[in-house]
Specification:
Blueprint (H helix, E strand, L loop, with lengths): L9 H13 L2 H8 L3 H15 L4 E2 L6 E2 L1 H25 L7 E5 L1 H18 L5 E5 L13 E6 L8 E8 L2 E5 L1 H6 L7 H7 L1 E4 L3 H10 L11 E2 L2 H9 L4 E5 H10 L3 E2 L10 E7 L4 H16 L4
Length: 301
């Protein structure tokens, strides 16, 4: 006797995943180009097939139950893998490159100066480096690995995240600015007189001054740079004192282009993270693992 197997309703699964990911039935309907009623019908169909509810509908807005959250996570990962596989099937059969996204600070200060050593060691692995923009989501269907900066480890579905380098920052300036400061211990007051440079906002210097016991209600004047590389360039040009992550300016400190003015730190909780897509193309599994191992081995180089 032939056994009938009831397959999961794929259309209903897609509708449910969209609702869970986008936060509402209306948003899911717009994304799927169907009516809100159709999405609601599909979700009800899935709950009937599972023989259990996925949403708590007692409030003004449906809220995912624990079993619904677990199913949504797995579906997002699965559909992401399917979309990535289809995208790869549409391109030519030429050898793929390992796609590495990096925020500008990591790309220019750490990765690019060391990339030749990776290429020399692994000439068979083709790589493509693209920018990751701080604060913007990364599409890990198109990216194999990504270097990011955050106050805590990013929680990304289908992505393995590891702390790569600490984000702890110290005050630095050019040798010319350092020479102009008063001899002896460099006080917060003397540094204020020399002028501060800010990265995005003044929060870093506020943190540092509070630890130093100085600053108080003193207005923190000075230019604000939206990109770390601009901040670093301004410090190198002698335009003032900047708070910079030690990990990104180690080469500048060793060459003497920048001078560290204090051992007191700020932004200690921040870090640079290496994120590896677990839905990586099987053809990229080995190159991705090789690059990850090389990156961690090269951190102090």
């Amino acid at each position: 006797m032939e056994i009938q197997v009831s397959l999961p309703p794929l259309t209903a699964l897609r509708a449910f995943e969209a609702v869970a990911r986008l936060g509402s039935f209306n948003a899911a309907a717009k994304a799927l180009f169907v009516t809100q009623s159709a999405v609601s019908h599909q979700v009800r169909h899935l709950e009937t097939w599972l023989d259990q509810p996925l949403f708590d509908r007692s409030g003004a807005r449906p809220r995912l139950l624990a079993r619904g959250e677990a199913l949504a996570r797995d579906l997002t990962l699965a559909f992401g893998g399917i979309e990535a596989a289809c995208a790869r099937a549409r391109v030519s059969e030429k050898p793929e490159s390992l796609v590495i996204a990096a925020i500008p600070s990591v790309a220019l200060c750490w990765l690019i100066p060391r990339l030749s050593s990776f290429r020399n060691a692994h000439p068979d692995i083709s790589v493509r480096i693209i920018y990751a923009i701080h604060g913007q989501d990364i599409d890990f269907r198109e990216v194999d690995l990504a270097f990011t900066y955050a106050a805590s480890p990013p929680a990304l579905p289908g992505v393995q995240t590891e702390l790569f380098l600490p984000g702890v920052s110290v005050p630095v300036c050019s040798p010319a600015v350092a020479t102009g400061l008063a001899t002896g211990s460099v006080t917060p007051e003397a540094m204020l007189q020399a002028g501060f440079l800010h990265d995005s906002d003044t929060s870093g210097w506020e943190d540092w001054l509070s630890r130093a016991g100085g600053g108080g209600a003193v207005p923190l004047d000075g230019p604000v740079f939206e990109d770390f590389n601009l901040l670093r360039a301004a410090a190198l040009a002698g335009q003032g004192i900047a708070l910079c992550p030690i990990a990104m300016i180690r080469d500048d400190l060793q060459s003497g282009q920048l001078v560290q003015l204090s051992d007191r730190t700020a932004l200690d909780g921040y870090g640079y993270y290496l994120n590896v897509a677990q839905t990586m193309d099987p053809a990229m599994d080995r190159p991705g693992a090789i690059f990850r191992d090389w990156a961690f081995a090269a951190r102090e180089a």
